[in-house]
Each structure stands twice: as C-alpha cells, then as structure tokens.
Amino acid sequence: MATNRTFTMIKPDAFSAGNSGAILKMIEEAGFKIVAMKATQLTPAIAGKFYEVHSERPFYADLCAYMSSGPIIAAILEKDNAVEDFRKLIGATNPADAAEGTIRKIFAKSIEANAVHGSDSDENAAIEGAFYFSQIERVG
Ligand code: ATP
Ligand code: MG
C-alpha cells in the first residue's frame, strides 16, 4: 500500500497566494487520489521536527521559520508509482530549474518558497503521512 502513496504539503507561499485550488486541480488531473487532507499551521518546533533531516543544512532555520509562517495544506495522495510520478509533477526544488508545466515552475516563488513538498521515497512517504494523519483520518 505504501508503495502507491506519497505525501504532499501546499506550502505557505502557495496557500497565501490563493493557489491551493489550482494546485489540487493539477494533482487530481494527473491521476492522484486524495486519501487524507487538512489545512493547518505548523509551529516552528513542529516544522523543525518535520525537516529534521535538514538540520545541519545552512537553510534549516530559515526553512523552519518559513514553513511555520502561515497555513499549509497537508495531504496523502494515492496513485501507481506515486512518489516518482509526484516528484515529476512538482519539478525541481529550485523553480528556475523546474521543467515547463510543473507545479513549481508555475507557482513557486523561490528555491525556499517553492509551493509544494513531495516525499522523496516510499519510506519517507509513510513516515511523513503518519506525522500528520492517524489511520482513522485516511480513506481506505
Ligand atoms: P521538499 O522536500 O520540500 O519536497 P525537495 O525534496 O525538492 O523539497 P529538499 O532538498 O528536500 O528539496 O529541501 C527541502 C526544502 O528546503 C526545499 O523544498 C526548500 O523549501 C528548502 N531548500 C532546499 N534547498 C534550499 C536552499 N539552497 N536554500 C533555501 N531553501 C532551500
Ligand atoms: Mg525533500
């Protein structure tokens, strides 16, 4: 089951710009089914826990401040080959490098405020989904 799921966040820049609906439309049109979804706002501490893997990177403090700066949408998505296909749909981390037609190319403002998160492995998709949602909050 986990191999067909990924986890995403619509980040504060995209949420505050009113792009959540357009991004979710792209996600659904690409064949992803929403399995769980909620709007929430992270505290700096919770953002720090989510991005703990980056705690040694120079941008970590800014990233935690940014990710807790406003509301986000967190969601679990289902599709065959979900992790890889979703990374293709969102495009490169830096929107300047993202392919035409990708979510980051269209909506991201910078390498940090890059509109969406997408899990980088099946294992992290399961960990990240469980970070936000209990089993009873998910469809199926
Ligand atoms: P995400 O994990 O959010 O899907 P990603 O896997 O493409 O993004 P990561 O290397 O995991 O990229 O970085 C996590 C996040 O940290 C990026 O999405 C971006 O918001 C921020 N980030 C990454 N690199 C930089 C950088 N050089 N300067 C500022 N922020 C950065
Ligand atoms: Mg990542």
CATH architecture: 2-Layer Sandwich
CATH superfamily: Nucleoside diphosphate kinase-like domain
According to CATH, the fold-level topology is Alpha-Beta Plaits
Terminal residue distance: 10 Å
Number of helices: 7
CATH class category: Alpha Beta
Q: What topology, given as strand order, has the largest sheet?
A: 2-3-1-4
**Proportion of beta-strand residues:** 15-25%
Strand-helix topology:
Elements: E1 5-10, H1 12-16, H2 20-29, E2 33-40, H3 44-50, H4 60-67, E3 72-78, H5 82-90, H6 103-107, E4 116-118, H7 122-132
Antiparallel strand pairs: 1-3, 1-4, 2-3
The protein binds adenosine-5'-triphosphate (ATP) and magnesium ion.
Describe what this molecule looks like in 3D:
This protein has helices at 12-16, 20-29, 44-50, 60-67, 82-90, 103-107, 122-132; strands spanning 5-10, 33-40, 72-78, 116-118. It is an alpha+beta fold. α3 packs across α4. It starts with a strand and ends in an 8-residue tail after the last helix. The model has no long low-confidence stretch (mean pLDDT 96). Adenosine-5'-triphosphate binds at residues 54, 59, 63, 93, 111-112, 114, 117-118, 120. Residues 54, 59, 63, 93, 111-112, 114, 117-118, 120 line the site of adenosine-5'-triphosphate.
